[in-house]
Write a structure and sequence with these properties.
The termini are far apart. The protein is built from 6 helices and 5 strands; from the N terminus they run ααββαααβββα. The radius of gyration is 18 Å and the shape is globular. By secondary structure, it is of the alpha+beta class. The chain has a 5-stranded antiparallel sheet with strand order 2-1-5-4-3, sandwiched between helices.
């Protein structure tokens, strides 16, 4: 299990900034165990990740997101922090999202992964392969939710074009 002291100075400073964000949302540094600190650091790491990563409260409030996720939905981290995950989910995904998130928080499932639609700030639909899991405290209560999203919009559009082409060929 890692502690803040195990991290290099630059990473500790980044983690301190992350902890400030978490404190604004009611978390305290004492609530974060070693594994949570490592997860928080991974989400906050400044790198050119292709995968969108974010941390949300158990109620679905965005706490932080990396640049890849912000670019994916066309929003700044600050704008996301004023929203919940439902605010960027396509309306046709709401029922499944709500059900799966509740199962995750209740401990019925450890992780869920699925392709789903999101609404970009500009109003168009983008597709992501979402992997969602929960970081739990030692007493098993959910501390926060980790979301990893890979942009699969180009793949979905290619699949749609192929399907349309096949339908036209059959006519």
């Amino acid at each position: 299990t890692g502690t803040r002291q195990d991290l290099p100075l630059v990473q500790r400073l980044a983690l301190e900034q992350v902890l400030e964000i978490l404190q604004k949302h009611g978390f305290s540094a004492a609530q974060l165990d070693g594994s949570a600190i490592v997860v928080v650091h991974q989400v906050a790491s400044p790198r050119d990740a292709a995968t969108g990563m974010a941390m949300l409260s158990p109620k679905g409030q965005w706490l932080m997101a990396n640049p890849a996720l912000c670019d994916f939905v066309g929003l700044s981290q600050e704008a996301l922090q004023e929203m919940t995950f439902m605010d960027i989910s396509h309306p046709d995904e709401w029922d499944t999202d709500t059900e799966q998130m509740q199962r995750l928080l209740d401990g019925e499932i450890a992780v869920y992964q699925r392709a789903k639609r999101y609404v970009h700030r500009d109003g168009h639909t983008v597709w992501g392969l979402a992997s969602i899991s929960v970081v739990r405290a030692e007493d098993d209560t959910p501390q926060f939710v980790i979301s990893q999203i890979v942009d699969i919009t180009a793949r979905k559009r290619a699949e749609e074009a192929l399907s349309l082409s096949n339908a036209l060929m059959e006519e």
